[in-house]
UniProtKB/TrEMBL annotation:
Residues 5-59 form the Maltose/galactoside acetyltransferase domain. This is Acetyltransferase. Belongs to the transferase hexapeptide repeat family. InterPro entries: Hexapep, Hexapep_transf_CS, LacA-like, Mac_dom, Trimer_LpxA-like_sf. The keyword Transferase applies. It comes from Seonamhaeicola algicola. CDD domains: LbH_MAT_GAT. It comes from the Bacteria. Pfam families: Hexapep, Mac. SUPFAM superfamilies: Trimeric LpxA-like enzymes. Its EC number is 2.3.1.-.
Amino acid sequence: MLTEKQKMLAGKPYKAFDLELLTERQNTKEAIFNFNNLNPKQIQARNAIIKKLFGSVKDNFFIEPPFRCDYGYNIEIGNNFYSNYNLVILDCAKVSIGNNVFIAPNVGIYTAGHPIHHEPRNNEFEYAFPIHIGNNAWIGGNTVINPGVTIGNNVVIGSGSVVTKNIPDNVIAFGNPCKIYREITEKDKQFYFKKYSF
C-alpha cells in the first residue's frame, strides 16, 4: 500500500495533512524562515540553506528573499538561476528549471491542485503534476504557472500571465490564459524593448 507521500510523488490523489508530509513541510518552513530572515549581506549562508533544501542546484544562483516552497527536495535549478522577490514554488511534484532562467517578482509555480468537485476536495484530497521550465527562459512578474505545464527553451512569458498549457521553444507568450504572441527571431537581438535598439 502506498504512503501519502508516495501517492503525491506518483501524481495520484493524496492527503497532504498526512503526518509524514506535514512534518516535512514544517521542517521546510523552518529552513525558509531562516533563509528569509538572514541579514541581506549573508548571501553565502542563504545559499547554503538552498543547497541543503533543494533537490539539485548548480554553483551560480541567486534567490531574493522572501521565498516560499513546500518541500524543497522536488526543486531542481540550473546554472545562472535568478529569482526576484516573492517567488512561491508549491513543489508537491518535481519542478525542474534549466540554465539561465530569470524569474521576476511575485511569480507562483504551482504543481499542486485540488479536485473540481467539492466532495473529494472537502475530504482533503489533492494532486500534483510536474512543471518544467527550459533553458534561457524569462518569466515576467505576477505570472502563475499551473500543474503539469512545460515551458520551452528561450521563452519569454509576459507579466501577469496564467500559464495553463505547454509553451513551445523560442516564443513570446502572455495573457490569461497564456497564449503565444509570436516567435523570437535573430532580429530581436537588435532591440532591448520593442523598437528601442542597443
